[in-house]
Structures are given as C-alpha cells and as structure tokens.
Automatic annotation (TrEMBL):
This is Fic family protein. Gene3D superfamilies: Fido-like domain (1.10.3290.10). Residues 111-259 form the Fido domain. Transmembrane segments: none annotated. It comes from the Bacteria. It comes from Allokutzneria oryzae. InterPro entries: Fido, Fido-like_dom_sf, Fido_containing.
Length: 331
C-alpha cells in the first residue's frame, strides 16, 4: 500500500522522463566517461560497493574507493571480498565506457551475447582465481554459460534446465533489443521485465545477480540514461519486487529502477554537467545540508534567486544557491 503523500508510480515515471529531457535538451545529454571522470567515478564507487554488498560482500564504501582508485586493499577482510569488488569495478568501468562510446563493439544492437559473456568474465575472473566455484566443471568458467541445474529460490522461482539456457538467452536478447520501442509500456517496467527475465534464466553458475545489474546498466546507458544503483539498504525491497516480477507484476521493480536512475541524475550527473552558473531544477541542487523543499520555499519567498519555467519547474544555479546560503548565515 502506498503511504499518504507518496507519489504515484506514474508520477515517478514522469519525474524520470522530465529529468532525462532536462539533461538532453538543456545540458547536452550524458557526458562520456573521459569528459566527466569525477561523475562516473562517484557512481562507479557506489555501484561496486552496493551491488556486491547485496550479495554479502563486507567491504565498506571507503575500502571500495581505495581499492578501485589506488588498487590498495585497506582493512583485513577476506581476499575473496576484495577480488569480488575488483572484478565488479572492472566490469562496471567497461560497461560505462562501452554504453556511451562502444567503438569496436558497436553492432547496431543494444546488446549482444558476446557482451553479456564479456561482462561476466570481467566481473567473475578475479574472484575465481582465488576462490573458484566448487561445482564448476570444464567449460563453466567466467564468461561461459552453466552446465548445472539450479535449485528453486526461496520465493519459488526455478531457473530452467541448463540445456535450455542457450535458447532462452536468444529469446532474452530479442526482448532486450526491443527496448527502443516499448509501445505503451513505461520504459522502467520494460527494463524491469528484461532484468527479471535474465535472473530467471540464471545463465551462469555464479554471479548472475551482479552481472544482471551490470547488464541493466549497459542497456540504460545505451538508451541515454545513467546507471541504476540498487542500494544495500533496499535489498529487501529489491528482492520483493523481483519476486513480484517473477509472477508478471513488473510495476514495483520498474518503480525501484526509475527512482534509482532519477536520483543518480539529480545527485551526480546534472549538477556536475551544469557547472556553477547554468540553471537546473532545484532537486539537482539539494544537498544533505539543504533539501529541495527548503530551496523551493526560499525561491517562492524570493530569498533564493530562481526562475520558474513555463513547465512549472523552479530552476536555480550552484552560484545562486551559494549566495543564498552565505546571505542566510550573515543574517
């Protein structure tokens, strides 16, 4: 049940599309990783930390940052945990670059089987060098589809027999490559269906959750959206949404994806791309010290320099917010 004052799912989807339209029409779209290294590094650290933490990894964000930026293992955690993060970081780095600048990988499709296998190899090879899967047979290493049966999951979902994986993945690729034309279905729910279908197939012996989230972000990037980060604090919500998607109800997972992408747009991408003087929605200027609602109140009262557009959205700039905060503290 949706709590009082909580926006509807349709409103969540509309907010995402408005944020993406802002990025494309006013700010030139997503920057390439080489053009805005700081933006992508921040998302890179958060994603590698949270996606591996969902699977039980014990590294905290500071340890993840040091490992990815300096290749230094800080702390005294199991070697497997460091190698999991190292592999995920390598794979995420490749995903961000290829999503926005595919180079030799460009095929005209959103995603290929070769790319899915490559993401799995990058993600899992480091940890398998120190702790290989105990049941892996010949030909089941990183980048190769499973040749084992998978037991049913707690929610009742049972992956198909391994003999069906190749066939099912061909169907999955068709579904993923149709995302550019979702018809009347909201894109977040179409993405939710593709993400859930991947996890149902469970094409690899291990690492399907991590690789599924990386593949989701490869698709998002190629569609012009920033990555989704499923935070470890939302693990239970994510798993509940996946179980509902198993039964054909895509809405909760679609909403979770939409909220994550919108938050990343406003938190990481739009403020950095806009610079200090370009006008952006107040949500992109909010911080831990001052909320979007507080900025809107200040704008309405004339205390913050801001402009209300024909679309009803208040916009200001980093420079104007800084001036407002300095004046506020002088009073």
């Amino acid at each position: 049940m949706r709590g009082p004052g909580r926006p509807t799912r349709a409103a969540v989807y509309q907010r995402l599309e408005e944020a993406v339209a802002e990025l494309r029409s006013r700010l030139g779209g997503l920057p390439l990783p080489a053009e805005a290294e700081d933006i992508w590094s921040s998302i890179w650290h958060q994603e590698a930390h949270n996606s591996t933490a969902l699977e039980g990894n014990t590294l905290v964000l500071r340890e993840v940052e040091r490992l990815l930026e300096e290749e230094r293992a800080v702390g005294a955690k199991p070697l497997r945990d460091y190698m999991e993060v190292r592999g995920y970081g390598d794979a995420a780095h490749w995903v961000y670059g290829q999503a926005l600048d595919p180079g030799d990988w460009q095929t005209g499709e959103l995603i290929t089987a070769q790319e899915v296998r490559h993401v799995h190899h990058l993600c899992m090879a480091p940890v398998w060098t120190v702790d290989p899967h105990p049941h892996a047979g010949q030909g089941e290493g990183p980048g190769s589809f499973r040749r084992h049966e998978i037991a049913a999951f707690p929610g009742g979902m049972k992956p198909p027999p391994w003999t069906d994986v190749d066939h099912r993945m061909r169907g999955w690729l068709d579904e993923a490559n149709a995302l550019r034309d979702t018809g009347e279905e909201p894109l977040p729910e179409a993405l939710a269906g593709v993400h859930n279908s991947f996890e149902v197939i469970h094409p690899f012996l291990d690492g399907n959750g991590r690789v599924g989230r990386l593949v989701l972000n490869l698709l998002l990037g190629r569609l012009g959206y920033p990555p989704a980060i499923i935070y470890k604090r939302d693990r239970d919500k994510y798993l509940r949404a996946m179980r509902k998607a198993d039964k054909g109800e895509r809405g909760p997972l679609g909403e979770l994806i939409a909220r994550s992408v919108t938050d990343n747009l406003y938190r990481f991408v739009i403020p950095a791309v806009a610079g200090p003087v370009k006008l952006v929605p107040l949500a992109a200027l909010a911080t831990e010290e001052i909320s979007g609602n507080a900025l809107r109140t200040a704008a309405v009262r004339g205390r913050l320099r801001a402009v209300k557009g024909d679309d009803g959205v208040w916009r200001s700039s980093k420079k104007w917010v800084q001036e407002y905060r300095e004046a506020k503290y002088r009073r």
